[in-house]
Amino acid sequence: MPHDLFDKSLYDFHTPQPSYWEATAGPSPVQGKPLEGHETCDVAIIGGGYTGCSAAYHLARDFGIDVQVLEAGHFGWGASGRNGGFCTMGGTFLSLKHQVRLYGEDETRQYWNAQAEAVELVRSIGDEEQIDCQRQGNGEYVVAESDAHFEAMQKGAEFKRKLLQRDYKVLDQDEFRTLGYDAPHQHGAVLEQPSFGLHPLRYAQGLAAAAERRGATLHPHSKVNAWHKRDGVHVLETDGGSVTAKRVIVAGNGFLPENLHRQLRGRALPLQSVIVVTRPLTGDEQAAHRWVTENPVVNSRHVYVYYRMLPGNRLMIGGRGDFKGTPVGEQTTHAYLGAEIARLWPEWAHVDMEYKWRGLVCFSSRLSPTIGRFPDDPSVYFGLAYHGNGVNNATWAGREIARWLAGGNSGDDPKPMHLPALVRGFAPRFPVPGLRKQYARAGVAWHKFRDWLG
Ligand SMILES: Cc1cc2nc3c(=O)[nH]c(=O)nc-3n(C[C@H](O)[C@H](O)[C@H](O)COP(=O)(O)OP(=O)(O)OC[C@H]3O[C@@H](n4cnc5c(N)ncnc54)[C@H](O)[C@@H]3O)c2cc1C
Fold first, then answer.
1. Residue 326's pLDDT is what?
2. What value, to the nearest 5°, has the Cα angle with vertex 375 and ends 371 and 380?
């Protein structure tokens, strides 16, 4: 269970992260109060991030369903309020070739069409609900760290263009110097669209407040400690009370205690991701690397870092965390990100990091998102494991779960057969779940070795 996987400091639901997002989100528009006493509803949702709030928003807005959301911290406390704000396509760690081998070309195309649709869904919710989430940029750059990477990326872009029938713009080093930035480790880039950057916590809280305006009931600081089924209905217990519901949506992703239900055990592999934000760069500092792009950027290494220039000219950079989750491990990974800043942009080696924080991303054993219903109980729905790409994916998963639940016309099938095969149903449990972190360690070591080989 996640609580066994990492240090307890990662599960302090009542303490917000010391993130740049928390410092700049402004007062939360969410009105809800912690659960007190006993309540009943049609659908109870565990987790108030993008998955849970999108499901609540669509259930209430489109179907008038009586829904309550139970969130252990404040709304957006989890990954949704502390991520890098990349609203980009992805959601899977399978290579495109593996996707085709496992699922075929049509399913792979459907998956990537859904990725683009999911990015646009975030944009449209932001517009319709007037969420001031500071959208930035118009695409995501993948920057080549070497000429060899650039060559491989050019071939990859061609393969993607043909297979996915989407446009991938290739920019050589000079073009990217004009449109992106200049630095010793930039050897050209590929632009993927649609994508943009946003303020993740403002989006999370705006989505939650929109769900509330549409009729959902939200309970912050209401951690579900126990879950029983009695007389055919679910009873979710918190410190302050309980909710009885006909149906439940599990939307806790990497922070969910998997001992809450036996079906959840061994299904997910939460892993740490860590972010730092610098002080504002001066005009001269920014000019030293000719930084002009507002697009989110990721570099081409296997163990990659992701970065953006935030409003106010602060550089944000994120990457993998350690495997223990202790405060000491956190300091080590923050130092690693500082070293990455110095390596990638030598002129900024001296720039202080003003904000540092971390959180859990979530993987599945099949390396793609998992959306479905419990095999032995079709009244329980779930959506999780977006592989560090949940801004679009979790929002989309929440909407799709809401539509599936409200449609009520798919019998008891535990898999949403109308969705792309890559996301259908539970991924198998990890073999020997106690070894999950060891698998991840081995994976990272292998990818570092590949990076070392160049
Ligand atoms: C550091 C970091 C950087 C990332 N960067 C990006 C990025 O740039 N772009 C991107 O697309 N994705 C990114 N991600 C991933 C993305 O944030 C997640 O995939 C997405 O937010 C998942 O949304 P969610 O609602 O499923 O889960 P969460 O947002 O984690 O929400 C789950 C909620 O469940 C609550 N919960 C857990 N247990 C209980 C319980 N027992 N009772 C009640 N509530 C409970 C938690 O408090 C939590 O708030 C990043 C993640 C991290 C950690």
1. 92
2. 60
Q: Of 92, 80, 382, 401, nearest to 258 (Cα)?
A: 382
**Range of 162's domain?**
135-197+270-361
Residue nearest to ligand 1 atom 11, measured at CA: 389
User: Would 280 be classed as within a structural domain?
Assistant: yes
- What confidence tens digit (pLDDT) does each residue in 328-340 have? 999 999 999 999 9
Low-confidence stretches of the chain (pLDDT < 50) are 1-2
Whether 296 lines ligand 1, by a CB cut-off of 6 Å, is no
Any ligand 1 atom below 6 A from CB of 52: yes
Residue in 8, 17, 80, 133 to alter for ligand 1 test, most ligand atoms within 8 A of Cβ: 80
**Which residue has the least CA distance to atom 20 on ligand 1?**
390
**pTM (2 decimals)?**
0.98
Per-residue model confidence as pLDDT tens digits over 40-57: 999 999 999 999 999 999
**β-strand 67-70 against 217-219: which pairing, if any?**
parallel
C-alpha span between 370 and 190 (Å, rounded)? 28
Q: How far is the CA of 282 from the centre of ligand 1 (A)?
A: 33
Q: Are residues 370 and 412 in the same domain?
A: yes
